[in-house]
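Before any further analysis, we paired sequence with structure tokens, yielding the entry below:
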Amino acid sequence: MKEPLVSIICLSYNHERFIREAIHSVVNQSYKNIEIVVVDDASIDESKSVIQELVAEFPSIQFIPIEKNVGNCKAFNLGFALSKGDFIIDFATDDIMMPDRIEKQITLFQSLPQDVGVVFTDATYVNEEGIFLRQHYEYLFRKKLLNEVPQGDIYIKVLSRYFVASPTMMVRRTVLETLEGYDENLAYEDFDFWVRSARLFKYSFLNESLTKIRRAGNSMSTGWYKLGDKQLHSTYLVCRKAQKLNKTAEENESLITRVRYEIRQSVFSKNVIEAKLFFELLSELTKPNWIDRTLFGIRHLPIPLRRIRNLYHIIRFS
């Protein structure tokens, strides 16, 4: 059987310190039928110089230097348009692939039916120095955020909770072609991709840690829900998409769970505009209860809601 071509779209933004190790982890894969497309999204450090050195070392690497920052979604789409692989990996150049990652994911894919569009795995989180922080699923299980890893038809699950480590995904090209790539109107791609792809394709889980994901800190809440967070507004836009995609009462209940969660995060992070938008969406999906109304009502009160939220997350998720 001919080995399918796998395209690794490597997204770089100010990864000067990490990009050499990241690209070497791709080049040194045990699976050899790969193409590497590196897209630098107008880095302001020396990332481009390092990439040019890597291209000189490995001439098969295709390099797209972007002069003006366009964001992750558009940067990926530019790389995807250049790629030719039957399978695609979206790979950040501060992460590290285990040497047999692609081989193992392709082997699993070749045993699966065509309606399975995504294979994802466990992951290991490391800090900037590469020191171990946690295992993705061990952490979710330990914190009682997940009881088992959903797979197959996961649409209902992805509406209500986070569980896929997106850097571990390998995706059939047909999935991204059907979705017409990432939505460039959004500040981030994960949630939107999960919702839209899971509506049409199944997911399969490979229970091995095949990617090291770099994190700046040891807290899962690092960078989440800052004041004026553009990602939060993107989450709202994706919830609106899900509202249109939903077909059953059970799916709506799952979306209601997500929206209630986002209302809490919006209120306690003082993102009052998004709090209002999510509350309006909740009111369309169901009748808000007294907890919903009380929570929404305190959004303008002069109390340190953000401090309360940050303290809660330190206690709950550290």
Q: What stands out?
A: Residues 218-222 have pLDDT under 50 and may be disordered. Strands lie at 6-12, 34-41, 62-66, 87-92, 96-97, 116-126, 132-135, 170-172, 202-214. The longest helix spans residues 249-268. The first strand starts at residue 6 and ends at 12.
